[in-house]
Design a protein that fits this description.
With 255 residues, this protein is an alpha/beta fold. It has helices spanning 17-28, 40-52, 67-81, 99-123, 154-178, 199-203, 207-213, 223-234, and strands at 8-12, 32-37, 57-61, 86-89, 127-132, 183-190, 245-248. It has a 7-stranded parallel β-sheet with strand order 3-2-1-4-5-6-7, sandwiched between helices.
Length: 255
Amino acid sequence: MPQFDGKVALVTGAGSGIGRAMALRLAGEGAGVMCADVDEQGAQATAARVAERGARAGALALDVSSEAAFAAGLEHTVSELGGLDVLMNNAGVGAGFTWEQTIGVNLNGVYYGLKHACPMLAASGGGAVVNTASIAGLGALVRPGSYTGGPGKLEGVNAYVAAKHGVVGLTRQFAVAFGTQGVRVNAVCPGYIVTPMTEPVRNAEGGSEFLESLHPIGRLGQPEEVAAVAAFLAGPQASFVTGAALPVDGGYSAR
Ligand code: NAP
């Protein structure tokens, strides 16, 4: 039996990249998926692909930096799809934003998901949250000025690193707080992945080669490779795994 048969997942940032791959992966393993994104059209496009796989699907316009909207999105998922078993707390922005914008989405947005989903999951008998952190949640980024266009973007890089370290901390804190209530909380820490977020850097002269050189495997990752690990962490095979921040990074963090 597929491991998510009869289960329901909410995926944030589902309109693109890693979130879209997560939604399709969970659907392929039997879950009904609410596809949420600030980009409503992107969410709808992913939901259409989820439905093509024969899974129950919904699309939702959601800005995760609004606590009220996130709480309402969780309730909407329950009322539309009949429950909530998994939250993929994945939405995020890259390094090109201000401190406030980056913290608002990448840290506050993850916190709101944990704050409202964990008690819901506990009350309904348990579940799992997977936060999308980053290698930037495990250490500093390498020479950011050399591939982000110079010091002008450094505020965004600093905020990105701070937010992702915060996501790893929240992963551990909520795992401890909800450990006896049947709610597991883990994080994936991707290296550089081929998604629209990394497109500007990949398209810059020498950008791809530079990024590839940071990964001992010698290439960038694909969104499906992150989604596979996230699905494992959310599923029954990871029943004794909680509070983990798992690199999915081609060896980046092993150096
Ligand atoms: P992506 O392709 O840009 O997808 C991110 C999605 O999130 C987009 O559809 C984006 O919409 C949406 N989004 C942005 N702000 C939002 C908000 N406030 N509320 C809801 N949705 C929002 O990027 P990705 O690479 O898949 O990134 C997904 C996650 O992985 C992020 O948390 C990112 O930090 C993390 N990550 C990525 C990499 C990488 O190399 N790609 C590495 C490590 C970690 P718009 O396009 O309209 O902004």
